[in-house]
UniProtKB/TrEMBL annotation:
It comes from Spathaspora passalidarum (strain NRRL Y-27907 / 11-Y1). This is Thioesterase domain-containing protein. Transmembrane segments: none annotated. Gene3D superfamilies: Hotdog Thioesterase (3.10.129.10). PANTHER family: UPF0644 PROTEIN PB2B4.06.
Length: 180
């Protein structure tokens, strides 16, 4: 409860939940099967049995000290940008108090697949229909445990973009905006 309160008190959360300047951000829960109909303000959600199976992020890591509360995704259907806010706990560390690089890669992988499924430039709305073919990470600073991470994702202009491929770019920041 306390973490959820802290999440909802973050300035970036407040900015996206109460958008200004006609920016339309939709708040989504990241561990559910999201359907584009939600973005079209329709209430039907596909209920598929494969989404009830335990996965690394929604089962194994969803424990105290791991990913205790559900990450929140904000998606802008006009600009096709995504913002994911996730709390990372001490059990995700490789070195004391520093989040393991493999965990950061896992979070980016999940974020890319989710944003690809929500993109207006792709044809499938199921996250598991996408795979990350190439993931390059430039670490700028250590990512410390027990904090909220803000992952901002957007489509990157690339000659590789076509009906079957989309190039996305993300930046991981602290809640105060420091790039990690």
């Amino acid at each position: 409860m306390q973490l959820e309160y802290k999440l909802k008190s973050l300035p970036i959360y407040q900015k996206l939940i109460h958008p200004k300047n006609a920016h339309q951000w939709y708040k989504l829960s990241s561990w559910e099967n999201l359907d584009r109909n939600i973005l079209d303000n329709k209430s039907s959600i596909k209920d598929q049995s494969e989404y009830h199976e335990p996965t690394l992020t929604n089962h194994t890591l969803a424990k105290p000290g791991g990913i205790l509360i559900k990450p929140v995704i904000f998606h802008n259907i006009e600009t096709d940008e995504g913002v994911t806010i996730i709390h990372v706990g001490y059990r995700l560390c490789g070195y004391p108090f520093i989040i393991h690089g493999g965990m950061i890669a896992t979070l980016l992988n999940e974020t890319f697949k989710r944003n690809a499924s929500l993109s207006k430039f792709t044809t499938s709305n199921l996250k598991d229909d996408f795979k990350v073919e190439n993931l390059t990470i430039n670490y700028r600073a250590p990512t410390f445990a027990n904090q909220f991470l803000v992952i901002k994702t957007r489509k990157k202009e690339s000659p590789e973009n076509n009906d079957k491929t989309i190039v996305l770019e993300s930046v991981i920041e602290t809640k105060k905006g420091k790039v990690l």
